[in-house]
Amino acid sequence: MKIVIAPDSYKDSLSAREAAVAIATGCARVLPQAQLVQCPMGDGGEGTLDALLAATQAERRVTAVHDALERPINASWGWHAASATAYVELAEASGLQALADTERTALHSTTLGVGELIRDALDTGAKHLILTLGGSATNDAGAGMLTALGARLLDTEGQPLPPGGAALARLAELDLSDLDPRLATLKVDTAVDVDNPLLGERGASATFGPQKGATSADVTRLDAALAHFADHVASALGKDYRALPGAGAAGGMGFAAAAFLGARLQPGIELVMDQVDFDRLLEDADLVITGEGQLDGQSLAGKTPVGIARRARRHGVPTLALAGRLGDGWQAVHDEGIEAAFALADGPLALPEALGRTAELLTDRAESLLRVWRLADRQTPR
What we know:
This protein is α/β, with parallel strands linked by helices. The chain has helices at residues 16-30, 48-56, 90-94, 112-124, 143-148, 204-208, 216-237, 249-261, 268-275, 278-282, 304-314, 351-356, 358-377; strands at 2-5, 35-38, 59-66, 72-80, 85-89, 128-132, 152-154, 173-175, 187-192, 264-267, 287-295, 319-326, 338-343.
């Protein structure tokens, strides 16, 4: 029997790799002779880089950059020399997970560090960039990234704007004359896990700003500032990207990636599956087990378990899911190829205890799943 184990990370608890190990441990208790293929996954958010490195055998590199508050940090990225491909995860440089709750500021956080990673990749010789968006602490529509790559955003007095999305309201001149020329020949694929546009009630500021510290007044201010920026970009490039599905990803980084990097925006899980050759792993598979921290109605918008299930269904392989929590509307995942989904808790648990026991609970639930599967399928281990 061949089982493909392809979870995403369990936020604040386990990486995708750790989750895959925990699930495999439970499966092995029941079917010790089964072929257990571990394939950690991600949909563009935090942890996607680790999944890509594990699957592609790319080299992990570390670069000194600046975080979302312009503090010096070391951020990882991936380098696959044979294909001259760089893997850059936004959350490594500008991620929300690096900030305390009291530090979250959607008004002033910056994507400068992401641009610094891309610049290092270009210096290394990258011809192809896989850029994953998600888990960002920023709402600057990629303005910080642009400054790291040579663009100048100036106010009415010809002075550089301070970092952050709010400052874009004061943009008077977008100077692209020194934008890194190597970007013109760089092939860029961008993984996004949402389809939101840049602006409006489903835009970057309104949808994601509050989790980054934005008040309702801040959201209004940021949306207007990003609209002003989008006007300048449309004037400079002769094309308007603000309504592009995914433009609102990572505080508008999808917008900047499409407009200035010529990126193709793809559902993150689809891009990652293609990179790890997931279709090959599904050949001759009997079962897929996936999961992440929460399954709910929003998971259909491109989250890992649903993307995995859709791909597995094309190959006629059933999928089971293990989630830290089943939220509102989770039953909709059944229509997308997830045959059954289960929450991990084995009783009433406070969140800190549940997070601390995630590996144990995953292993136990995987064991229970396989016991039911073996009973239902009437197969013996092979």
